[in-house]
Amino acid sequence: MEYKSDIEIARAAQKRPIQEIGAKLGIESDDLLPYGHDKAKVSQRLIDSVQDRPDGKLVLVTAINPTPAGEGKTTTTVGLGDGLNAIGRKAAICIREASLGPCFGMKGGAAGGGYAQVVPMEDMNLHFTGDFHAITSAHNLLSAMIDNHIYWGNALEIDIRRVTWRRVLDMNDRALRQITTSLGGVANGFPREAGFDITVASEVMAILCLARNLQDLQKRLGDIIVAYRRDRSPVYCRDIKADGAMTVLLKDAMQPNLVQTLENNPAFVHGGPFANIAHGCNSVTATTTALKLADYVVTEAGFGADLGAEKFMNIKCRKAGLAPSCVVVVATVRAMKMNGGVAKADLGAENVEAVNAGCANLGRHIENVKSFGVPVVVAINHFVTDTDAEVDAVKAYVATQGAEAILCKHWALGSEGTKALATRVAEIADADEANFAPIYPDDMRLFEKIETIAKRIYRADEVIADSKIRDQLKAWEEQGYGELPVCMAKTQYSFTTDPNLRGAPTGHAVPIREVRLSAGAGFIVAICGEIMTMPGLPRVPSAEAIMLNNAGQIEGLF
Q1: Is 75 a catalytic residue?
Q2: Catalytic residue among 15, 24, 39, 73
Q3: Distance CA 213, CA 219 (A)
Q4: Catalytic residue selected from 128, 165, 268, 303
Q5: How many CB atoms lie within 10 A of CB 200?
Q6: Most buried in the list 170, 337, 503, 516, measured by CB within 10 Å?
Q7: What is the edge-to-edge ordering of all strands in the sheet holding 234-236?
Q8: Of 196, 383, 476, 523, which is the active-site residue?
Q9: Nearest-angstrom CA–CA distance, 201 and 23
Q10: Is the overall model pTM greater than 0.70, yes or no?
Q11: Do 342 and 454 meet the contact criterion of CB atoms below 8 Å apart?
């Protein structure tokens, strides 16, 4: 049987005017700032006006460690949101915006799939409403102002060897990871070593996603540490006097974007930090606004639960005062077989033994999520090659973990394929049985926070960090940053720092290569193993297949 591609399905969508979508949440047309007919930003006036309303129920969708077999976390998020609306619940979804880096690199798109998509799919995967461009511009404005300050006499006495603020670009470009700036003579400034990160790893991105309003945004931007003096005292963004102009560039980007699913249900798409190198959640503004407008809000956190869900709980929920009522862990039979040692080329053949072997990865994620005090449901994202015996094996295993697994066919059937999951999730959320708490307290030492995540979530035996890193963490504690949470930058493919080690390994070590202070965002970044904050393109990037056809339509986005 031949199936339509995601982009063919999205192109045939029967979209409704964005004002109709807003009306489903009680948003008046005057509070929508339209970008064309099918997307709009929600006004700050509306956001301010709903703050006294009670919150709806928050549902987090996470997943097992990603494999080349595919898991479909965003697809399940969209399908669950549609399913909740289909069973008569007032629901909205909250997801992140797509970065151009993976769009032209490996993924080719990030708006769901099949009949569980958010549209306009092409716009969302490309320039959308310009938020990422604004973040990139604000970040690089600060970079330019730092170098300009140094050029014109360096009144702040910045040690140019200790400028910590790197530039960013929303593209995978390994050639820019480490560079030298200001070459070419006196007119171009003082040469120094620098580098680029991808925009989604920018502290400005994290700040936008954690800020409550424009005032909070500007304060956080001002708190960014950009460099150090020779006496090791910090130089802040506000010292450079860049925070005001950066806020101006970000004023529209701060407002959440409203779009719709294929079934014309509301979807907030706002912010986009990666979960492997940043904190992996959509904006606090979008989530908290949706909770005031809908009875159920379905959101996702990037990559597997060891990264996205851990950061959602320990960083976003802690900082924003949020508490999920239920967590959905997405898994596929194909991924279970891959974790059980089956090669990608052989995934089509039934192999119950491999499914059972691979379920250990799923089991660990279930156990980890439960450790935060939140009930768990497993969504088995159905593929046509799955056999009944393989599906039953996953269900039986999940039952031994004290949870329930539900087969979902939203990719092929839309909301009809997720009604069972939606019904169960609503039951759990309504029961108010969650007793959410982060897994470490604010006052724990920074290195102990890193160890807690490594040992309790990754099941590592030890954390390896040289004295320079340990001393840096102690220095930050002495400077008043000891209560910040930790954002682990680690490969998404494994519980370890080795991307090739699948399943549920134990007895490994987590090496910390570098630590960075994101004082404005409000967390410490611990860079583990070989993870890069500026990805590179694969041997055959998705960009090679993305083009316009003779009808002027985009081809190649998944």
Answers
A1: yes
A2: 73
A3: 10
A4: 303
A5: 30
A6: 337
A7: 158-163, 225-229, 234-236
A8: 383
A9: 34
A10: yes
A11: no
By three-state DSSP, how is residue 315 classified?
helix
**Structure tokens that stand for 149 in this block:** 């300050």
Catalytic residue among 275, 379, 434, 460: 275
Dig out the tokens for 273 from the structure.
């930090």
The residues near 141 (Cβ < 8 Å, ≥ 6 apart) are 242, 245, 246, 249
419 an active-site residue? no
318 in active site: no
Q: What is the DSSP string of 52-85?
A: TSPP-EEEEEEES---TT---HHHHHHHHHHHHH
Q: How far is CA 357 from CA 7, 54, 57, 406, 544, in A?
A: 35, 44, 35, 20, 37
Number of H-type helices and E-type strands within the chain:
21, 25
> How many Cα atoms within 13 Å fall on the side-chain side of residue 60?
33
Q: Decide if 107 is catalytic.
A: yes
Q: Is 303 a catalytic residue?
A: yes
Quick one: CA dihedral 123, 302, 325, 411, positive or negative? positive
Q: Is 220 a catalytic residue?
A: no
Give me the tens of pLDDT residue by residue for the chain, a chain 558 residues long. Answer: 567 888 888 888 999 999 999 999 999 999 999 999 999 999 999 999 999 999 999 999 999 999 887 789 999 999 999 999 999 999 999 999 999 998 899 866 678 889 999 999 889 999 999 999 999 999 999 999 999 999 999 999 999 999 999 999 999 999 999 999 999 999 999 999 999 999 999 999 999 999 999 999 999 999 999 999 999 999 999 999 999 999 999 999 999 999 999 999 999 999 999 999 999 999 999 999 999 999 999 999 989 999 999 999 999 999 999 999 999 999 999 999 999 989 988 998 999 999 999 999 999 999 999 999 999 999 999 998 999 999 999 999 999 999 999 999 999 999 999 999 999 999 999 999 999 999 999 999 999 999 999 999 999 999 999 999 999 999 999 999 999 999 999 999 999 999 999 999 999 999 999 999 999 999 999 999 999 999 999 999 999 999 999 999 888 887
Q: Check: CB of residue 548 under 8 Å from CB of residue 536.
A: no
